[in-house]
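Archive entry: two folds, one per protein. Generate the first.
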Amino acid sequence: MSGAVPFRSHLKTVEDLRGPAGKLEALLNTGRDDALYAALVAHPHPLGGGTMHNKVVYHAAKAFSSFGLPVLRFNFRGTGLSEGAHDEGRGEVDDVRAALDWLTAKYNLPILFAGFSFGANVGLRACCGDARVRGLAGLGLPVRAEGRDYTYNFLPGCGSVPKLFISGDHDAFSPRGVLESCLVKASEPKRIVWIEGADHFFAGIPSSPAAKLDAMNEAIKSWIVEEFGLQSA
C-alpha cells in the first residue's frame, strides 16, 4: 500500500538576502509546495547575544514550519556574519523590510511575522501597515530592558490583521500591568497570552523551573489554526 509522503522541512542557507547595510546572514526552513503563507521570524537584541539561533526564535520558527510554511530567519546587521553595524533599532527596521522583500520575491505569498523581544519591537514597526503581512506575533515584547525603553504608539497602525502577544507572567522586562497598558492601543483582533511561571526568555522560575518554550510553541500553533485555518503538515 502506498500512502502520502510525510512533509519534511529542509534547512537551507540563504546567500542572496541583502539589506541597506549589506548582506544579511539567513536560514530558510523550506515549506510545502502548496503552502498558503510564508513566515518571517526576528531575533532578540544583538548586544545581549541575540541571534537567529536563539531558542525562542528557533521554537517560533518550528511552530510555523509544522504547518508546512517556508520560514525565514536572519541576523540583523552587524550580527553573526551579517554585514554592517548595529543601529539601535533604526536600520534594523529596514533589515526586516529587506527580508519581507526577499520572501515576496521568492514565494509571492502573504506573510506571517513573529519577533522576540527587540526583534518583536523592530519587526512590528516594520510590518505594521504592510499589506503583505497578514499576521503579527510579538513574543516577549520588552518595555524597558538593559536601560533601553521601547514604545508601542505605532500599534494602532497595524490595522485589522490578527495579532498575537505572548509573554511570561514573570517577565522582568515587561511587567504584566505595564505591558497590558501598551497593548490597549493595539486594534482588534488581538490575543494576549500569558505563560504561567515563565520569565522573559520563556524559561522557568524557581517555583516552576521547567522551560516554558513548549507552551509558547503551542500558543503560536493554536493562533495559526484558529486565525488562519491551517492544519499541521
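Generate the second and append.
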Amino acid sequence: MKVSTKGRYGLRSMADLALHYNNGPALLKDIAKRQEVSMKYLDHVIKPLREKGYIERIKNGYMLSRPPEKINCLEILNAVEGSLAPVNCVDNTEFCNKRNTCPTINVWREIKKSVEGVLKRKTLKDIAEKKD
C-alpha cells in the first residue's frame, strides 16, 4: 500500500496544526512554508479535512476542530485518501465476481485491518510529539 502525496501532506499539515494548536489559527502560507508545499496544493489538501470537520477556518487561518489527542491518523487519511484497502474487492463487493471463492481475499482484509489498527492508535498528538 502506498499513501499518495495528498495523504502525506494532509497528515503533515495536520501534525503542523497540532504542533501549533495552542497558538491559535495558523495561516495557510505559514503551514505551506513550514511543510515546504505550495499554497495551491495545500489548499487542495485542506479542503476535504475542512469538509469532514477536522479543521475549521477562523478568520484568515486554520485550527484543529478538536484537541490533537482526539484526532487519529486513520481519520485524516480516510478524509484525504478514501479507503486504505490494498485491493478494491475488499471494500467493493461488485468489483470482483470471485470475491466469495478467492483464496487471497482474507490476506487483503487482514492487511487493511492491520494498517487501520496502527493508524487508529496514532493521534496527532503522538505525531507532533514524535512518539512511537
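Annotation attached to the second fold: The chain has six helices and three strands. The beta strands are 26-27, 55-58, 61-64.
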